[in-house]
Amino acid sequence: MSGTSKSGKKRVPTATLKLTGQYREDRHGKRGDESVVSGKPRRPQRLKGAAATAWKHVVDATPDGIYGEQDTELLTAYAELWGAYCELWKEGEVSRALRVLERWLRIASDLGVGPISRCKLTIEKADDKEEALGDFLNSRRVS
Q: Domain tally for the chain?
C-alpha cells in the first residue's frame, strides 16, 4: 500500500514545529501549501455540558497560532463527540459509547490533543520589549 495518501507519518503543521523547537528552515522553510492560521476558533452556542467543557480544555489551553477560525468545525466535532460519549456512558450504552470514543480519539489525534503532544510544547522566551520592560522595572526597585 505504499504511495497512498494515508501511508507514512502525518505532516506536522509549521506552527507546531516552531512551538516544539523542531522547525528547521532548510527542511520546512519552503512550505507553500500550508494554510495560514487566522483568527480564533469560535465556540458554537449549542455546545453544552461535557461538550462545552471539552471545547474549553482544548481551545483555551492551546497556545495562539495552533488553531484558527478555520478549525472551528473540527473542534466542534471533537467537543460534540465527547459530549455524546459522556451521555451514552451515563445511559449505560457502553457499546455505542465506545464506538463514539474511537471516533473522538481519531479527531483528538488530528488535533494534537493528549499528554504526549502537550509535553512536546515549549514556552517561547518573551519578546525583547517585554524583557526590556521587566529589566527596567527590576532595576527601579528600591533596596
A: 1
